[in-house]
Every structure is written in structure tokens, then in C-alpha cells.
């Protein structure tokens, strides 16, 4: 089975109430369109009295979940790691994106009473057809990475100009098509 690029996000909220609604809707929309597959979701909140509440979810099959376990819980030391833990993968992500296994393991201790945290690990399933086309064309992946915030800041102006130019072209195309009618 082919696997697309995997990404991890770590979010912190000033209130557990913020974990509902828009975030769940956005995730469900992306999942419904087949753009991502949730490998692991781990949400934690602390009540005012310090009581910890945990939730997790996955899009993996029962067999997949049994095989891979919950990667985030393993990284936090909440699950018994097996021979193939997610530690190395999380460390690699930490090197490229600034999120390490150590950061994830501190999630529950960093959350103050009345706060919440959310860690999402998902596969970019939209990338699978591209990967297969490259492979069928004789290509192979040499590197894959997400741009760090510093790198985005360096090229942000140029990317913004390109996107604005693209929007102008699309708007002109709409006007031309409307004029034809």
C-alpha cells in the first residue's frame, strides 16, 4: 500500500471549547474530499481543577490501528512502544518543522487548567496520484519537506505576487468568458 507524505501539527488553545465546531468541520471536509487521511488525532484539555481529558481518533482500519497503534500516544509515553516506534519519524519532523517528539511528550504538562492542545498527524492522500505518476515516469523522490516559517517569510513576497497575478488572470478569464455570452 502506497503512503503519501505525513504531516504533524501541534496546536494550543486558551479554552477546550475551541476544539469543536470549525476545526472538526474543516477536518471532515478535507477527509470527505479524500485530500487527507487521519493517522492520529490527540486532543487533551485540562479542567479548572486540573482534571485531564483525552480524546483520540484515526481513519485507519482496525487492522491498521492495531499494526501502527497510536503514534502520538507512543511519542508521549502513554502507550507501550513496540520495535517500530514513531520516535525517529517525529524527530525527523522536528528537524524540518520545529516539532519534536519531546515537544509532543510535554503536551499534557504544558497545558494549564482551562487550556487545551491538539496534535494532528495525517497523510496527504492527494499526493499519491502524483507520486505514482512520477514513479511510472521513472522518477524517484529525492527529497520532500515543508517550508519552515523562516523560509516562507523569505519568499513570501514573491509567492504573494505570483498568487495575485494568478487571481488577476483568472478574473480576466471570467470577464472574457462572460463577454462571449
Poorly predicted residue ranges: 80-86, 92-97
Distance between the termini: 48 Å
The count of strands amounts to: 4
Q: Which range best describes the helical content: under 10%, 10-25%, 25-40%, 40-55%, 55-70% or over 70%?
A: 40-55%
Instruction: Describe the oligomeric state of these chains in a short phrase.
Output: single chain
Total of DSSP H or I helical runs spanning 4+ residues: 8
Question: Gyration radius, to the nearest Å?
Answer: 20 Å
Mean pLDDT: 76
Sum up the overall morphology in one term.
Answer: extended
Sheet with the most strands, sense and barrel status: 4 strands, antiparallel
Give the structural class.
alpha+beta
Kindly report the spatial arrangement of strands forming the biggest sheet. Answer: 1-4-2-3
* Percent in strands: 15-25%
User: What's the SSE pattern?
Assistant: EHEEHHHHHEHH
Question: Your description of this structure?
Answer:
- This protein is an alpha+beta fold and 181 residues long.
- The protein is 47% helix and 19% strand.
- It contains 8 helices and 4 strands.
- It has helices at residues 22-32, 62-68, 71-76, 87-97, 101-105, 107-110, 128-136, 149-180; strands at residues 6-13, 36-46, 52-57, 116-124.
- It has a 4-stranded antiparallel β-sheet with strand order 1-4-2-3.
- The protein is extended and about 65 Å long.
